[in-house]
């Protein structure tokens, strides 16, 4: 064992001496090379050579330091990488307690003081399937027709949101946050009789109390949040706590000051609000449904110059609808549907028949400045005649051209009243047939923008009213949130 250790040590020492000899030889050769170079290059040249090398290293160092890093992808590039169809961003749908939405559907018998609303909120908000249209619309399109309630949009939007291509389950990826509170269904039962202001505000205050507990709401004070209001904006703008005053005060509650809202009729001076089309009865299942209906109304043979669908409001002094109804019934060139004798509220074949059969349709004010019937009229390819500027001006700007005169006719209501309606026929008869055809073609091309497809339907390259709305909402919310954090 001792002999083995000595042998190993001897071998190690021998290798060490060999390495030392090799290093000494290398050092001698380097010194010799340096002296050889030194003997051939003057000293001042060596100094300049060293300075040049040092400056080159210094320049290279600063170039590396000043080069910009590889640019990080922009928000738009990141969104494009996630889904090329979601360049406007992603929407997150809050899972609210059922008391704020689906419970209204479950208790639909309690939504209206006069009648059940269960039919109106059925079929994802589309209502019952339309009947009696076999002689009015193409037979293979009848499954796409429902008797849809004019105030069902908040249910329709909620159901459509679940299958939206740009919905995200991760709130950190969301551009916008949708609050699925059925404020319209909530306030509907409290608008009449002896309910108090507190009754009308109770659920609105509760949902805002829930929201203020969410970090996604508080971090930007709600600037990236939005809500769909199924009724007119005026139903949510009570100014005082007077029990006799109309509506809730939802839109004036402090936590709503930054929340963007959609409604079927907006306040024209409110930048946080945008109007969307009333739901009609036609809910296409495919792009071919839309094309087939467009061709149908384009080629339909119309026998009347104009039509009016509505009812007199006997309790209203100087009721303008009464003027229109009396005049229409007296004119051979006008087709009237009197909703005092025909049930119109839940849909009726007679309404679509009248609009299909006329070039123009008379559209007075509804509960507000706008009217659901206007969209039923346009759906049939009939040109709306309106009597108050606010019916189109400033409304539906995301869906309809701002130049309303390209697809509508305006006649001032005071002038109509002064002539007992006779001015209407004079104005309409003066419009050349080629112009009428051109205006109808404009409506036909606009049609996809004001109908709501069925949830999960494939409309191909077509964007319907819902698609257009959500795309524009996300763009608006992204801009608002960027401004909020930049400031």
UniProtKB/TrEMBL annotation:
- How does the protein associate with the membrane? Single-pass type II membrane protein
A GO biological-process term: xyloglucan biosynthetic process
Q: Which locations, inside or outside the cell, does it occupy? A: Golgi apparatus membrane
Where is each Exostosin GT47 domain found?
A: 86-426
Going by the entry's taxonomy, the superkingdom of the source organism is recorded as: Eukaryota
- Annotated transmembrane regions: 46-64
Q: Does the keyword Membrane apply?
A: yes
Q: Look up the signal peptide feature and give its range.
A: none
What is the protein's major site of localization?
Golgi
The UniProt GO MF terms for this protein read:
galactosyltransferase activity
Membrane is among the record's keywords: yes
Family per similarity comment: Belongs to the glycosyltransferase 47 family.
What is the protein name given in its UniProt record? Exostosin GT47 domain-containing protein
Q: Which organism is it from?
A: Capsicum baccatum
Q: What is the lineage of its organism?
A: Eukaryota, Viridiplantae, Streptophyta, Embryophyta, Tracheophyta
